[in-house]
Amino acid sequence: MNIHTALARANLGDEVKVVVPCSFDTFVSESNLPSKGHFRTDLNRTMVELLTFLSKQHAPFFVTISPFTTFQENKNVSLDFILFKESAHPHNDSRRIYKNSFDLSYDTLVTALSTVGFSEMDIVVAAIGWPTDGAANATSAVAQTFIKALIDHLHGKTGTPLRPRNPPTETYILSLLDEDQRSITSGNFERHWGVFTFDGQAKYHANIIQSSKDLVNAQNVEYLPSKWCVVNNNKDLSNATASALEACSVSDCTALSPGGSCSNISWPGNISYAFNSYYQQHDQRSDSCDFGGLGLITTVDPSVDSCRFFVGLRTSHSASLQAVHPSCWLVLLLVHMLFLVC
Predict the structure, then answer these.
(1) Which residues form the X8 domain (predicted)?
(2) What does the pLDDT look like over 296-306, one tens digit per residue?
(3) Residue pair 231/296 in contact by the 8 Å Cβ criterion
(4) Are 18 and 4 in contact (CB under 8 A)?
């Protein structure tokens, strides 16, 4: 309300709408049926206050929808149902047929809004995506299937059983890049939502924008030298696990999670992965590959199958204007792509 007041004083109240992104767990449903949808009891008063404010300002309701989390937490929902597969068993709710999880979640929110008197509130899906690592079924192949099916569904403009021919006002794909510092409280997959890897490489093929045919890899990315930090097998490795855990506490080792891309590498390969993550995060400083004498710097890529031992990006502040840091053009790419499906 304070932000809106400030905008109004700057004569921008009608041009700039203040919105509040809400998590997918703000609304629930008994028996997983949209007709039973409602806001959580402990949040109901707050949601009514928020919706009253949004309605007065003619602003939409911003919500996150998380099909991956739904699939993980609900054993009664099949992967085919999440991925819009025609073979999926449909859900029947008061003679309304739901063929995919997205429509079911969306209409659960529609019912929750209607229950508190805001049946006509516009909805924007502020974030929806599929992770590519850190858990079972979090792979690039499954993510590609989901994103393609979601986009085709939205472009069809068929709406949902409760809002036919009235799809979300806007839908935003989560997210541009992986975030190696993102909280993993809800799961190690949280650091792998990116459509692109941290170095700007497309993880899969997808026509996210109608005007383009496919995602394009970043060009001229500047990497650190092709060096990796691995465990020295000639040393006593009895304390190696403790060193690896310490390294993972400040770096990203989520690929080692059960079902992750590096979950199948055996000991001490997983120790080497932890050492290398720490080493690259610290810009390949020689002292960051010590680990009490257990670390060894090598120029032989230790990557195994789908388990990638990454090399960090060059982040020197002395780069010339002609050598723009990759993160800069990625921001520009986001501006151009908007990652917006209307």
Answers:
(1) 227-309
(2) 999 999 999 99
(3) yes
(4) yes
Mean per-residue pLDDT, 326-339: 40
Tokens standing for 286? 């020689």
- Going by the DSSP 8-state scheme, the letter that residue 298 receives in this structure is E
59 vs 121: CA distance, rounded Å = 8
Rounded Cα distance, 247 and 39, in Å? 41
Q: What is the pTM of this model?
A: 0.88
Among the CATH numbers 3.30.1490.190, 3.20.20.80, 3.30.420.40, 3.20.20.70, which is that of 2-218+334-341? 3.20.20.80
Q: Is 334 in contact with 328 (CB distance < 8 Å)?
A: no
- What is the CB neighbour count within 10 angstroms for residue 297? 16
DSSP codes, 46-99? HHHHHHHHHHHTT-PEEEE--HHHHHHH-TTS-HHHHTT-TTSPPEEETTEEE-
pLDDT tens digits for 179-221? 999 999 999 999 999 999 999 999 998 887 665 678 899 999 9
**Ranges of each domain in the chain:** 2-218+334-341, 228-298
pLDDT digits (tens, 9 = 90+) for 99-113: 999 999 999 999 999
Which residues are within 8 A (CB) of 38 and not within 5 positions of it... i.e. 6 or more apart?
27, 28, 29, 44, 111, 112, 115
